[in-house]
Design brief:
Number of strands: 7
Number of domains: 2
Shape: elongated
Strand order of the largest sheet: 4-3-7
Largest sheet: 3 strands, mixed
CATH superfamily of the largest domain: Tetratricopeptide repeat domain
Helix content: 55-70%
Structural class: alpha+beta
Distance between the termini: 42 Å
Strand content: 5-15%
CATH class of the largest domain: Mainly Alpha
Number of helices: 15
């Protein structure tokens, strides 16, 4: 489960960025292989790429760059055995190439060999201590083997290199959770969500955050999908939607406008002040309708309560003095 989440996060990061310097230092032939290899990887034309580099291999059996890209292409097709053979040869032919060691480690990991996986990352980092992906995957390797302190050290080193790296941010929050460092974990989830508030990782990060009773971010079912949004906020003691929250309402409005089968429910809670709760509910509806005047106003349903919203945060019941819940159902208007 963990490795699946990590792979989702690394899609965001663009794995092909981890070897730019190495590609430029192997002569014209290696550079040509790099251009071709990245083209086949980026366009997901794996079979065509394997065919091309297999042909190249018959002419240049001692080419480390040909072996390297064959390994990348085999791994992209989940042919771990084929990838392993090519990366092992690439490392033998060019032991000074950091990316060769890194991808050999990734392949060992996919092959279920965590010990030699770790050693490959160590060799990559010996050549380049700042290799971002080797740092991150060294952290993953330690996390999966329960070495939480060491895993966190690698993630922190990666974040010093790239403070917005989504994989290092997410995985370090998981490590902090494993270590029982609740306060730091919560802050790390918030840091991740402030930068990457959409997609499956954001939904899962929000669940982790909510499990601690923190509902500053919430998951909302809008149509057939679940979306993460920061809690809708208002200017203090008013019904004026805050500038930051307006972006979320624009996002919701776009979905409702596009899918005419949806009814939007807006539920506002305000402890001891039902009047303000009602005004805030109307303010949300008015803002969406003003931005999207072609939305039938009957498709936005309002509810308000002069009380707290009670939610389950992990094992603890949480009462929010003011909050907004948004969800949809299919309309019967048509």
């Amino acid at each position: 489960m963990f490795r699946h989440i990590v792979l989702i996060l690394n899609i965001i990061v663009c794995l092909c960025a981890c070897g730019t310097t190495a590609r430029m230092t192997g002569g014209i032939s290696s550079f040509t292989d790099s251009v071709r290899g990245e083209y086949y990887l980026d366009s997901k034309k794996y079979d065509a790429g394997i065919g091309y580099f297999t042909s190249r291999l018959s002419d240049k059996p001692q080419s480390a760059s040909v072996r390297y890209y064959l390994g990348r292409l085999y791994l992209a097709k989940n042919d771990v055995v084929g990838a392993l053979d090519q990366f092992m040869n690439a490392v033998l032919l060019a032991p000074d190439k950091t990316d060769h060691h890194f991808w050999l480690g990734v392949t060992y990991g996919a092959h279920g060999q965590p010990d030699v996986e770790k050693k490959s990352y160590e060799r990559a980092l010996a050549l380049n201590p700042k290799h971002l992906q080797a740092l991150i995957y060294s952290g993953h390797n330690r996390l999966e083997n329960g070495q939480y302190g060491m895993a966190l050290e690698f993630y922190e080193r990666a974040l010093k290199r790239q403070s917005r790296n989504p994989s290092a941010l997410y995985a370090s929050a998981l490590v902090l959770k494993k270590m029982g460092r609740k306060g730091e974990e919560i802050q790390r989830w918030k840091r991740f969500l402030s930068m990457y508030p959409s997609g499956a990782p954001a939904v899962q990060a929000t669940r982790h955050l909510n499990s601690h009773g923190d509902f500053s971010y919430r998951n909302h079912r809008i149509g057939p999908r679940v979306f993460t949004m920061k809690q809708i906020e208002f200017n203090a003691s008013t019904d004026v939607v805050s500038k930051e929250s307006r972006e979320s309402l624009v996002f919701v409005g776009k979905i409702i406008r596009k899918n005419e089968k949806l009814l939007l429910h807006v539920v506002v809670f305000q402890e001891n002040n039902a009047g303000l709760a009602k005004a805030r509910a109307k303010s949300i509806k008015n803002y969406i309708c003003q931005r999207y005047p072609d939305i039938d106003v009957r498709r936005i349903r309002l509810s308000w309560f002069g009380e707290t919203e009670n939610l389950q945060g992990g094992k603890t019941r949480v009462s929010l003095a003011e909050s907004v819940n948004i969800f949809t159902e299919f309309s019967r208007l048509h």
